[in-house]
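Entry 14. Structure prediction run on the chain below.
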Amino acid sequence: MKNKKNIFEKTVYSIFLILGLITIGCVLLITIYLVIAGIPAIREIGLFPFLFGKTWESTSENPSYGILPFILTSIYGTAGAILIGVPIGFFTAVYLAKIAKKRVKEVMQTAISLLAGIPSVVYGLVGMLVLVPSIRSIFHVPDGASLFAAMIVLAIMILPSIIKVSITALDAVPKEYEDASLALGATPIETYFRVSVLAARSGIATAIVLGIGRAIGEAMAVMMVSGNVANMPKLFESVRFLTTAVASEMSYSSGLQRQALFSIALVLFLFIMLMNATLNFFLKGKKERK
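Output returned:
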């Protein structure tokens, strides 16, 4: 009996090991492919003209391949989405996990799950038909397709990830922590924010990281509401993100233009990897110091 159990455990361990190695292998293959496909254009255009050039005219007679507008737009758009989405998602998660009645929690969690399952193109379509005209009429701008519209759409799209993971983290906090805080005279609200949230901060940080990843990697919805024009980023002007730059031109690109699009993908990939590595470093550093 013991031998059968050991064989079963070794088999399961081997399966998970193989699956883990396959995952790592896929990441390595993607990395190698992007490096091989992206380096030639950077070498021909020049690193600084490519990263810090302000003009992208890939189809003109004298093409220019500067992606600084795309980089800044991606940074500003993601930051704006996080500033809008994280507070809403965080307070919603605290309310559902600690304050809401059971029936309300069940209904809202179902709605959040449905929100997570909506395709990005639907978000883009609704944003294009409802949000863009609203921004145009409210702020009296020529075109509502702008960086601001993209921020709002991205903020809505990251809400399910932030809320669901944060609720899971808050529900995992031992009940004894809250009972001890209440016994010492703290109010329920003080207990939720000063005890439960602090105990679940690692999971909440993970939720924010997932939200950032979703915001940076989104293409279709952003393309439909941002105007998709290679301008330097301004709040109420049409802009183009790194993701939309690749998606909008890849179908008809060729030669150096196509290589430059792979270089944009490489920059985006490295940017996401750097951000994840930085966040993981700080999170692990906090855990080790405790």
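The first helix runs from residue 2 to 45.
Filed with the rest of this week's runs.
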